[in-house]
Amino acid sequence: MKVSSSNAVRLVDIQTEVAKDVQVHTMHHHDGVMKMREHGELAIQAGQTVDLAPGGLHLMLLGLKKPLSAGENLTMKLTFEDAKKARNTSVVSVLVRPLGK
Ligand SMILES: [Cu+2]
């Protein structure tokens, strides 16, 4: 999934019906092993496109309410906030991809 914005915004909230929580994660190498950790709020600069995908920055669903299969599409509600604290919500359809692929 690619997220872009014409003005500088922060991704402050992500919601989906199928999970209790959604976090932005980042992958990093540690002693030759790929690990991930929570990235925290995602900041997008004006005109920047951020690519969210396995192997890099990705969205991680926590506390799944039902099993998901790869290839399935999920609806997510993303809330962005700009420097003036104005909020903007967009609903996106996201493709489920297998972990670690
Ligand atoms: Cu993750």
Q: How would you summarize this macromolecular structure in one to three sentences?
A:
Helix content is 0%, strand content 60%.
Task: Kindly list the characteristics that best describe this protein.
101 residues, 60% strand, Immunoglobulin-like, globular, mainly beta, binds copper (II) ion
List the helices and strands and how they pair.
Blueprint: E1 2-4, E2 9-16, E3 19-30, E4 33-38, E5 42-44, E6 49-51, E7 58-64, E8 73-82, E9 87-95
Antiparallel strand pairs: 1-6, 2-5, 2-8, 3-4, 3-7, 8-9
Bound molecules: copper (II) ion.
The site of copper (II) ion has 4 residues, from strand 7.
Description:
The chain has 101 residues and is mainly β. Helix content is 0%, strand content 60%. It is built from no helices and 9 strands. A hairpin with a 4-residue loop joins strand 8 and strand 9. The site of copper (II) ion has 4 residues, from strand 7. Copper (II) ion binds next to strand 7.
Bound molecules: copper (II) ion
In the sheet with the most strands, the strands line up as: 5-2-8-9
Q: How many β-strands, per DSSP?
A: 9
Structural class: mainly beta
**Estimated helix fraction:** under 10%
CATH architecture level-2 label: Sandwich
Q: Compute the CA-based radius of gyration.
A: 14 Å
CATH topology description: Immunoglobulin-like
What profile does the largest beta sheet have?
4 strands, antiparallel
Low-confidence stretches: none
Number of domains: 1
Fourth-tier CATH superfamily name: PCu(A)C copper chaperone
N-to-C series of helices and strands: EEEEEEEEE
| Proportion of beta-strand residues | over 45%
Molecular shape: globular
Q: What's the CATH class label?
A: Mainly Beta
Given the structure, what is the number of helices? 0
Mean pLDDT: 91
